[in-house]
Amino acid sequence: VGVKKGGTRAVLEFIRVHPDVRALGTEPHFFDRNYDRGLEWYRSLMPRTLDSQITVEKTPSYFVTKEAPRRIFNMSRDTKLIVVVRNPVTRAISDYTQTLSKKPDIPTFEGLSFRNRSLGLVDTSWNAIRIGMYAVHLESWLQYFPLSQIHFVSGEKLITDPAGEMGKVQDFLGIKRVITDKHFYFNKTKGFPCLKKSESSGLPRCLGKSKGRTHVQIDPEVIEQLRDFYRPYNIKFYETVGQDFRWE
Fold first, then answer.
1. Does 97 reside within a domain?
2. pLDDT tens digit string along 156-198?
3. How many domains does the chain have?
4. What are the binding positions for 3'-phosphoadenylyl sulfate in this chain (predicted)?
């Protein structure tokens, strides 16, 4: 269910190597943009699975969509949810970098981040900032789902220890640990782990060229102000999920 620019594509591509998992490749956006098309439409998009297999889809914007938790709960209260999180400041910069590649004439990162920079007033209405307030969004999910049905993946560890993070995902899904160290190699040019072979072709598989873009250079003082802004949200998030992601 999220978050954008956290590593959701990597988790999806890594987990679908597992024989007990089938995944939809595209983002269906059912629980946010296409809900009026109905459950049968949603079902028709899904890969065919055996009783022993798990079906996975990913749409990162679900995490910040107010209606998504209730809608998913109404479909199935037993749904397992995976949330990939990363340092909210680097996530915001990555988000901005992606937007900039599509719309080169947008304002500066600093300009969008603050309502008043000298007063340190952060503009929480800007999506790139808002998404990183994980503790706030999580509250909506916890109204419908217990923490035991939500698994949090560290976007940072996904890069440094993909096998370890994917081991935990497999445990959470209740499937055998099939995806291990031997599935990964580190691609130095991209700075990301890649799969030695994908489910379909048996060839090495790295994420697309849009992944691992060089981030825009941001004034260190801006980064510091944003770190201060996110700190209370991060701490509350760690306390709620019982996991320290070490972003401080």
1. yes
2. 999 999 999 999 999 999 999 999 999 999 988 888 899 987 5
3. 1
4. 5-9, 86, 94, 211-215
Active-site entry in 4, 5, 80, 190? 5
Is 5 a known active-site residue?
A: yes
| 115 carries a ligand binding annotation | no
Q: Which domain holds residue 37?
A: 8-241
Q: Give me 238's structure tokens.
A: 């760690």
Ligand-binding annotation for 205, yes or no, is: no
Is 5 annotated in a binding site? The answer is yes
CATH code of the domain covering residue 235: 3.40.50.300
- Does some domain include residue 248? no
Please give the full DSSP string across 26-87, using - where no structure is assigned.
Answer: S---TTTTSGGG-HHHHHHHSPP--TT-EEE---GGGGG-TTHHHHHHHH-TT--EEEEE--
pLDDT digits (tens, 9 = 90+) for 198-217: 556 666 778 877 777 789 99
Q: Which residues contact 110 (CB under 8 A, 6 or more apart)?
A: 117, 218, 219, 222
Q: Is the pLDDT of residue 240 over 60?
A: yes
Question: pTM here?
Answer: 0.94
DSSP 149: G
| Rounded Cα gap, residues 180 and 50, in angstroms | 23
- The three-class DSSP label of residue 2 is strand
Tens digit of pLDDT for each residue in 47-73? Answer: 999 999 999 999 999 999 999 999 999
